[in-house]
Amino acid sequence: MPAEESTPSEKTISLFVLLLFTGESYSLTKLSEKFNCSKSTILRRIEAIERWAGECLVRQKIGNEIKFKLNTPKRPLVFLSPDQIRHLIMCRDMVSHLMPESIKDEIGNTINTAASLVEDLSQRAQSFETICRSEVKGRIDYSPFGGVILELESAIRDHSVCLLKYQAVAKDEPREHMFVPVTLSSYRESIYACGVKLNSQRPHDEVGPMVLAVHRIKELARTPLTREVSYPAEMDNYFGIIKHEPIRIKVLFDTFAATYVREREWSTDQCITPQDNGDIVLEFTAANEEEVVSWALSFGKRATVLEPKQVRERIKSELSVMINAY
């Protein structure tokens, strides 16, 4: 309880804190007793609070007395459980190898802030226990590309047209493209910007879907132009990250590879047909031919492409070159 010699400012602050944190109504009599001062002193403090609290400070006439109450916006009580924090940490640890250091730090700080919402203080420490880690061979260090990722994120949100230089595989010099990013995708431990390429001479003309590896973007600048484009989202249901003409694939897998193949979804319209000897035939739709060839070859002798003919011929050609190399 403040003493008589408290300064006017101290009395005002004490009165405000009382009204703010209790949410109760107080009469002049009650307040003067609580702060051990006269009613006129309390009134002066009330008027001081009213000058900057405005309508939040309410006077209520109850019987013969006037009571004072500070109305504050109602905030929902939001709490997180230790398990929810651990699940956030699990997601972070599973994908952190794809993130630049700056974004990883931001994710860590966000999780630390979220942990303050764990209601039981004694459980906060155990919220940070982690049991997950990612093991990646041939990892790309995305730390130098943090700025590119953030710029792409903003461009996607604002529908911005971007001018960029991109170093394609097996090309001596980067090429310039006018590009509208639509989404960022992770695929086989890499980050890709998916969107639509525009005609650099006629920006209103769309060239077609385009997928760019973020780590090969050498320069990126947002232009003042904005453009809402249609990206073939249905092709996300097909095998492969590069979007070309869809192609139906049929592959025979031996018994050893059958379990691995059966455990996974290669396209949403896939069909697996068991064979009498334990082999399986997988039919699925691919978004491009190039990735199918590399994928089929990765199974070695355990996979045989049955259809289409042009993919079989591509694989024969690749195998011929490989045999000559060895």
TrEMBL record:
Protein name, per record: Uncharacterized protein
Organism superkingdom: Bacteria
Record lineage: Bacteria, Pseudomonadati, Thermodesulfobacteriota, Desulfovibrionia, Desulfovibrionales
InterPro entries linked: CBASS_pafABC_assoc_protein, WCX_dom, WYL_dom
Domain WYL: 148-220
Residue ranges of every copy of the WCX domain listed in the record: 245-320
